[in-house]
Amino acid sequence: MNENIIKRNKLLATTVIKGLESRNMKGYYAENKEEALKKALELIPAGSSVTMGGGMSVHEIGLVEALKNGDYKFIDRDECEDKRAAMLMAYDADYFLSSANAMTQDGVIVNIDGNSNRVSAIAQGPKHVLFIVGMNKICDDVDGAMKRARNVAAPINAQRFGLSTPCSKTGTCMNCKSPDTICCQFLITRFSRHEGRISVILVGEELGF
Ligand code: SF4
Hints:
Elements: H1 3-22, E1 26-30, H2 33-43, E2 49-52, H3 56-60, H4 63-69, E3 73-75, H5 83-90, E4 95-98, E5 102-104, E6 109-113, H6 117-123, E7 128-134, E8 138-139, H7 142-160, H8 166-170, E9 185-189, E10 198-203
Parallel strand pairs: 1-10, 2-3, 2-4, 4-7, 5-8, 7-10
Antiparallel strand pairs: 5-6, 6-9
Bound molecules: iron/sulfur cluster.
Iron/sulfur cluster binds at residues 150, 154-155, 158, 165-167, 173-176, 178, 181-183.
């Protein structure tokens, strides 16, 4: 990566981390995927129960594989026959992992969801929530973050899951009410009531979409 981009990402991450701290959340900066994986494994104590609600960035840094092969109780929804039981277990997990659809420079986290298991677990339930967020997802403000979530993240996710939504055909949000919509719920996380519950590892590389 170009050294000026690396420098810019690091500088901007300092601002985002200050914003997170002002919102009772914790932020860390990792220059690359390897550093991000190391930091995540430092933060999650051995023996923890861990689950997630989707998130390419979490996979991309190698965290899912490391947890599955390590001394952790990883609850894999995809491998559970009883999806509802897996979802309910997630609400009682020690750690819930997620990426974000977008974040603001001052530390607000934006997520959209169809099933809504991800946004509900971020809002309440798991003892800790750990976000892995590439610096490509940082936007100026909440308006920009919502636009990114709906015009960039959602169309790509709709295509990824083979959903029949207008955005999967046009590449941008058409504000649909399609039965396949993945925009059932919007979660704007602007403050954490519980000290130490929400942490974000910002990564100075492009992750997810
Ligand atoms: S509201 Fe519909 S068209 Fe817009 S991003 Fe969501 S699923 Fe796509």
